[in-house]
Specification:
Layout (H helix, E strand, L loop, with lengths): L6 H10 L6 H30 L1 H4 L8 H31 L1 H21 L3 H4 L2 H31 L5 H30 L3 H5 L1 H5 L1 H12 L6 H9 L6 H8 L1 H31 L4 H29 L1 H23 L4 H28 L7 H18 L1 H11 L5 H19 L11
């Protein structure tokens, strides 16, 4: 006759339960977080500089309004390159492993960002300057396009099933952390350099990327390949070209994942790119705007982890649909606050749009997208959906909104409609996808 389990037996069972609190998992999560933070430091640094610097340094001869538009075009180029980076790194990540691609993407990003910091202005080398800027932005886009998929999959494929959302949030949370670092660095050197900000002050944060990349490389080289990929390798099955596999077997997951993710990127661009530019042009203090942007990114970071944990409990779909609907209700108030020319108005707008709405969308999205694909093509499929959304939602949004503002004579109603449609389209896409929290990755 079997006896009832003792307290010691129960303790042993509890201890054996899968956990994120192990030495290996802590290293993996730290690698995903720090690596993503460094790469997004580089990428978001460019976005902020596109709002405040590049229109004056590389496109000053185009005239008011058009110089900013041209600067945003170069910003879009990086987002256009992200799906290409996702396909390239996804292909080799699905065939050779996640870890190798993560190390390579970080190295490429660091070289591209450092080169931007060394680029002479148009006044010195003419049209070669903006052309080189576009090429280096393409390099950044390819690198960050490969970064997200690898970082997210390293976390997800190592994590226990019931903690996948929270684990994946470490890769995503690197984005706001990188935004905080990049924004504060630009704000610091704007204050230090004063009137020389457009001469040399803006360059220092770009050059600091070289040091950050060394730190990130050291951390990433210590992380092991994911168990899911190791099992795929051990199975020895003949694998197709990942892109063809995705397009044949998972096209719906790509399209719906892209639409679901687009709303997050639209929120990001509206608040942290276009919003920064319009707030400064409306009369808000530049340094104050940058500091508030950094504080809002900190809130995004906190909400990201909270919403990811919540998605592990109640499901990714509920969190994402709730956040999109909340955002649609808040769109017009956010726009009014953002454009009132007061620092407090910008602060309220970015706290609501960037901190709250974007934070709730951001937390579950990595796990949500990755769970829609099988191991053999997960890097490619998830990257294609996520980076396609970045191209549409973040790459084109600043240009679209600048054009809608001109078409509406400076009014906000066309911009509000655009933003609301993006959020509602995301809601519908999420509603049409299956819940992935209980799905077995392999």
């Amino acid at each position: 006759m079997s006896s009832a389990p003792t307290a010691a037996d129960k303790g042993a069972v509890a201890t054996a339960e899968p956990s994120l609190n192990t030495k290996d998992m802590r290293r993996i999560l730290a690698s995903s977080f720090v690596g993503s933070a460094i790469e997004y430091y580089d990428f978001v640094l460019y976005a902020t500089a596109a709002s405040l610097v590049f229109n004056k340094v590389f496109f000053a001869n185009l005239g008011p309004g058009f110089d900013l538009f041209a600067s945003f075009v170069t910003l879009a180029v990086g987002y256009l390159a992200r799906p290409l980076g996702g396909l390239i790194f996804g292909h080799f990540g699905d065939r050779l492993g996640r870890k190798k691609m993560l190390v390579l993407s970080m190295l490429i990003m660091g070289l591209g960002t450092t080169a931007i910091g060394l680029l002479p202005p148009t006044a010195q080398i003419g049209m070669a300057a903006p052309i080189a800027l576009v090429v280096l932005r393409l390099v950044q886009g390819v690198a960050v396009g490969g970064e997200w998929g690898g970082a997210a999959l390293m976390a997800i494929e190592h994590a226990p099933k019931k903690h996948r959302g929270f684990a994946a949030a470490f890769a995503n949370a690197g984005g706001p952390a990188g935004a905080i670092l990049g924004t504060l660095a630009l704000s610091l050197f704007a204050a230090v350099s004063g009137d020389d900000f457009l001469v040399w002050g803006w360059r220092v944060p770009f050059l600091l990327s070289a040091l950050l990349i060394v730190v990130g490389m050291v951390i990433r080289l210590k992380v092991a390949e994911t168990p899911s990929f190791q099992r795929l390798e051990a199975a020895g099955e003949k694998r197709r070209v990942p892109l063809l596999d995705v397009l044949k077997n998972n096209p719906k997951a790509v399209v719906l994942g892209l639409l679901a993710t687009t709303s997050f990127y639209v929120c990001q661009s509206m608040t942290t790119v276009w919003g920064v530019s319009v707030a400064v042009e409306s009369g808000a203090d530049k340094n104050g705007v940058l500091n508030i942007k950094a504080l809002a990114a900190l809130l995004t970071l906190v909400i990201c982890f909270y919403s990811a944990r919540l998605s592990d409990r109640i499901g990714r779909r509920r969190v994402l649909m709730g956040a999109s609907l909340m955002g649609a209700v808040l769109v017009y108030p956010i726009l009014v606050l953002m454009t009132n020319g007061e620092l407090w108005g910008f602060a309220m707008a970015i706290i609501l749009g960037n901190g709250l709405v974007q934070g709730f969308l951001y937390g579950p999205i990595a796990a949500y997208v990755a769970e829609q694909f099988p191991t053999r093509n997960r890097y490619t499929g998830a990257s294609l959906a996520y980076q396609g959304a970045s191209m549409i939602g973040a790459g084109f949004t600043p240009m679209i909104v600048a054009g809608l503002s001109l078409a509406a004579g400076g009014g906000l109603w066309l911009i509000a409609i655009f933003w609301i449609v993006a959020l509602l389209a995301s809601t519908v896409a999420v509603r049409l996808t299956p819940e992935g929290t209980q799905r077995e990755l392999d």
